[in-house]
Amino acid sequence: MKKLTTTLLFMAATSITIGQNHVAVRQGTFDSSWESLSQWECPEWFKDAKFGIWAHWGPQCQAEDGDWYARHIYFEGHAQNKFHVGHFGQPAEFGLKELCNAWKAEAWNPDELVRLYKSVGARYFMALANHHDNFDLWDSPYQEWNSVNIGPKKDIIKGWKTACQKVGLPLGVSIHASHAWTWLEPSQEYDGNLTKAEGKGKWWEGMDPQELYAQRHAHSADWKKVRGIHPQWDWGKGASLPSEQYKLKFQNRVLQLINDYNPDMIYFDDTAMPFYGCDDNIGQNILQHYYNHSAAQHKSKQQVIVTGKQLTAQQKDYMMWDVERGVPDRPQQEYWQTCTCIGQWHYDQNVYQQNRYKSGATVIRMLIDVVSKNGNLLLSVPVKANGTIDDKEQAILADIKAWMDINGESIYGTRTWQTFGEGPLAESANPMNAQGFNEGQTYSSRDVRYVQKKGIVYATIMDWPESGAFLMKALSTKSGKIKKVELLGGHKVAFTQDANGLTIMIPADKPNTIAPVFRITFKK
């Protein structure tokens, strides 16, 4: 554990009184007002990167039984509760804290994984810093329940950061712990109300379970319902509101993580910012600190990103919109990101055994669509309890790599063109639900997506059409006279252009099996 530093900070902009043993909010170009924070601009590195890979990996992966495991084990009769009882015992005796301690990450090799992800085509990497389980995956002086003290006895974030530095990848961290207050409420009927004194003679003697569970508080409405938390995600509709102490502890953890690990990106699994709906100050303090911290390292020009869910137009001025498992049906004026997973967020043996992973082709087509609409794709590849990925995931990554090795120039560094695409899906509406959740469209050989870079247009047909003539209506003579058309990974392609569009001859030979990309050069 790091020794706490003692800092005294007085801030008129916040309602929280900050005294000793707290991290000072950094002063600088940005203050905590929304007007000031709206000076933030998306950095060029992110605009160019387009594709990131995420290791959504922590102690809940120990069970290898899917998402929200540490919540669902406390609902008697739930499938994950039944699995837990059968494999570990009753959650009153073997609960979240035991799960954290059982997780050892014994085969984790961050250098090997990050090198693989970069070779596949990732241009940034995201690591889970904590989940709703409230367990920190770094040497956290403000959360004794962390991966250095418990379980792996390793600084997971430091391991990922060092691996990223070796290959030159920006590092992002995802932070989800603001909701532990309500997310772990069902544990109150099991081990969630234990005190430090009750640990005497037990493996966790000297540690305070309330620092992990944070459950000595009133219940939320519908706290006994599995899905009761979802309508309360923005701290309304009967949610038990977190204490000032809880919120300030969260802020300290985030600011210390920024100070000591210098992430290039922070992903918040919140509606907008942590505690949005009950307290704006924490989010404002974090943004002020992070942007000033970055600006001080980059000649007054911040180079970092913070993402949040379901942002308003105003919120998109000072942070980035993240869409969960979805894609807007139209291009966005502001840069944005979608996050998705080839399986469940936390590793799930059922997905592996039932062959329910997304295919490499599905990921590539989603990436093409996202990039055409001014976005980036962050892909989670679930990591097993021991820190490795399975053979089917490796095969999917190999398929992604095979396409990217040939066609990466149509992704990296590109920008939107005058139209994002044409075809059936471009002409139809596909509304999102809450944070997103509209993925799963079937792209066809009639769907085309466009991007441009340095005067060259890249046209991608989302599935291989039959060989022969193919019309791209957006590339009529109104778009400019075309000099040549080339198939990436292939050769020049015969074409004609008139007022109706560009007609190209689809070759019979296929340099890849997913989607052909055509480089279109215009006459000057």
Description:
With 524 residues, the protein is an alpha/beta fold. 25% of the residues lie in helices and 17% in strands. It has helices spanning 34-37, 44-49, 69-72, 79-87, 96-102, 110-120, 156-167, 180-183, 210-213, 244-261, 281-297, 349-353, 360-372, 391-407; strands spanning 51-55, 124-130, 171-175, 265-271, 305-309, 320-324, 336-341, 375-380, 421-422, 448-453, 456-461, 468-472, 482-487, 495-498, 501-506, 517-522. Strands 1-2-3-4-5-6-7-8 form an 8-stranded parallel β-barrel. The protein has a 5-stranded antiparallel sheet with strand order 9-10-11-16-13, covered by helices on one side. Strand 10 and strand 11 (456-461) form a beta hairpin. The longest helix has 18 residues, at 244-261. The chain is globular and about 80 Å long.
Task: List the SSEs and their pairings.
Elements: H1 34-37, H2 44-49, E1 51-55, H3 69-72, H4 79-87, H5 96-102, H6 110-120, E2 124-130, H7 156-167, E3 171-175, H8 180-183, H9 210-213, H10 244-261, E4 265-271, H11 281-297, E5 305-309, E6 320-324, E7 336-341, H12 349-353, H13 360-372, E8 375-380, H14 391-407, E9 421-422, E10 448-453, E11 456-461, E12 468-472, E13 482-487, E14 495-498, E15 501-506, E16 517-522
Parallel strand pairs: 1-2, 1-8, 2-3, 3-4, 4-5, 5-6, 6-7, 7-8
Antiparallel strand pairs: 9-10, 10-11, 11-16, 12-15, 13-16, 14-15
Helix pairs in contact: 6-7, 10-11, 13-14
